[in-house]
């Protein structure tokens, strides 16, 4: 990030005055297509898409050099089953059944990758049908679980998506990540959803094509049924039933995007979407959070806690540890609670404070060892301070036992604010 972009971005958040970044109104009619890598900078992405929270598609030129595009794909543009088998045959992968609905997703099972490939071949031979149903390999943590040693050759993280705190945090803990491979025959699809923690995602078709249906944040409200639930399939004829979907007349049409082989799509924060594989498709998808959607994540976590509290409200007066139990339930339903969110902020903040401390001593310039430039670190500290101030002021965070936290949340907030003031000069 350069100084000018940092100033632009800081002004953007000051202008929002504490409102959660979104994108008001119905979906745009079309998506912006970015043709040439040379003519599109990180600053262009921040100003044009990340801050306004708008989707875009990058041409296949952006992923031209990726090893996966060379090795995982035949000259006819199909998945190279033999290569993939030889490389990953023994790896156990998660597989969803697209034909079976369980609440608003599909049941998953695990199987060796070689069994999935056998299924896929049979499915093609059967004219894209199988008695086993329509199986979709989803959320395969290839980087985390891989037995292979050439990971860096599969893809190169595009600079636009390099400020990725979720994966930075999990890499420090060394237990998980949000880097996935999806693979499935034509006809596999992902039901209607918004991404985990209201993260951004990016997705590249290594081969094949996808159709995306997008609804900007807030537009999904008109799609709720009479019980307040979101649809599983936004294309279902059920949605025409106004007794079942009383607000459907207020809904707007989705933004439809066709993503071709090699192209990369940016999915903004809180945009609901439904996705279809139009051909036999393999994609690499990452979820990511950074200073630009941290407030969206925090807003989402507050809503999740509220939903838990509502669900178990009848025990509030009879259960001595009710607030603590709500946090425990939240952790198991959402994957994170307020304590862990603080830990996440702390890990990300401490690295930036260190970079800025060095920078403020006069040691300016990029810090290759920490992989962060000073302007980016200064911007990040501002966003962290804003969100942490809201966390510290939250009544339910004040109920969390923070006695063993180091540093104490107020202390970390003070450090962030002091550093932010000092970093004005940078
Ligand atoms: O490709 C898919 O099936 C779903 C991808 C998705 O939902 C995402 O990248 O956010
Ligand atoms: Fe998604």
TrEMBL record:
<dbReference type="GO" id="GO:0005737">
    <property type="term" value="C:cytoplasm"/>
</dbReference>
<protein>
    <recommendedName>
        <fullName>2-oxoglutarate and iron-dependent oxygenase JMJD4</fullName>
    </recommendedName>
</protein>
<dbReference type="InterPro" id="IPR003347">
    <property type="entry name" value="JmjC_dom"/>
</dbReference>
<feature type="domain" description="JmjC">
    <location>
        <begin position="146"/>
        <end position="305"/>
    </location>
</feature>
<dbReference type="GO" id="GO:0046872">
    <property type="term" value="F:metal ion binding"/>
</dbReference>
<dbReference type="GO" id="GO:0140096">
    <property type="term" value="F:catalytic activity, acting on a protein"/>
</dbReference>
<comment type="similarity">
    <text>Belongs to the JMJD6 family.</text>
</comment>
<keyword id="KW-0408">Iron</keyword>
<dbReference type="GO" id="GO:0045905">
    <property type="term" value="P:positive regulation of translational termination"/>
</dbReference>
<keyword id="KW-0479">Metal-binding</keyword>
<dbReference type="GO" id="GO:0043565">
    <property type="term" value="F:sequence-specific DNA binding"/>
</dbReference>
<keyword id="KW-0560">Oxidoreductase</keyword>
<dbReference type="Pfam" id="PF13621">
    <property type="entry name" value="Cupin_8"/>
</dbReference>
<dbReference type="InterPro" id="IPR041667">
    <property type="entry name" value="Cupin_8"/>
</dbReference>
<dbReference type="GO" id="GO:0016706">
    <property type="term" value="F:2-oxoglutarate-dependent dioxygenase activity"/>
</dbReference>
<comment type="subunit">
    <text>Interacts with ETF1. Interacts with the ETF1-GSPT1 complex.</text>
</comment>
<dbReference type="GO" id="GO:0005634">
    <property type="term" value="C:nucleus"/>
</dbReference>
<dbReference type="InterPro" id="IPR050910">
    <property type="entry name" value="JMJD6_ArgDemeth/LysHydrox"/>
</dbReference>
